[in-house]
């Protein structure tokens, strides 16, 4: 029993040391394999509502998803990796308003806005689309470090509004809901979308920075 406790304590200390060494930078094309690997550790065929990434099975088509991540690295200004010892362990992918509406032109019109939400906040924003931390390293504040970098960059450009979506049906994304609460997002609306023959229910969250 003592050996098990000692081993668990060592693992906790190792994770804490790793978390303290985390640095954040913009993603580069050379990161695409590691970004895919991180996504594949959480976005699997057997979905876990406590891990997030509930829609796609990233292991089902590695080439497709690597090409998607690579294209976003080239296209998006706000695509970051958190790394330790030069190896990415998490990433965050966010879209400017123009980029998001290019892929989702009806997004603003499709939302059933909360009665208390002021739509003036949609004039200029970024939308955080994906945040993933390597399985086994969640809860160490790594995602928060990615957010700190994003917020620093967008506020320097005069952008004060952030949006994010969280799926609650057909499978609720508890990991995302918890993170929205931690980051102090406010519910702004709800949206329905069809994806691969299913109707998804997305909660739209907003945050002023």
Describe the model:
The protein is globular. The chain has helices spanning 2-20, 32-42, 62-75, 97-103, 107-110, 142-156, 174-182; strands at residues 23-26, 78-84, 87-96, 112-113, 126-133, 161-169, 186-195, 198-208. The protein has seven helices and eight strands; from the N terminus they run αβααββααββαβαββ. With 209 residues, it is of the alpha+beta class. It has a single domain, classed as Aminopeptidase, CATH 3.40.630.30. It has an eight-stranded mixed β-sheet.
Which structural traits does this protein have?
disordered N terminus, 8 strands, 7 helices, 209 residues, Aminopeptidase, alpha+beta, 8-stranded mixed beta sheet, single chain
- State the strand order across the main sheet: 1-2-3-5-6-8-7-4
Q: Give the helix level as a range of percent.
A: 25-40%
SSE pattern: HEHHEEHHEEHEHEE
| CATH topology group | Aminopeptidase
**pLDDT below 50 for ≥5 consecutive residues: which ranges?**
1-10
Total beta strand runs: 8
Backbone structural class: alpha+beta
* CATH architecture heading: 3-Layer(aba) Sandwich
The shape, in one word, is globular
In what range is the share of β-strand residues? 25-35%
Number of helices: 7
Mean pLDDT: 87
Straight-line distance between termini? 47 Å
Mind summarizing the main beta sheet?
8 strands, mixed
Give the domain tally: 1
CATH class annotation? Alpha Beta
**CATH homology superfamily:** Gcn5-related N-acetyltransferase (GNAT)
Radius of gyration: 18 Å
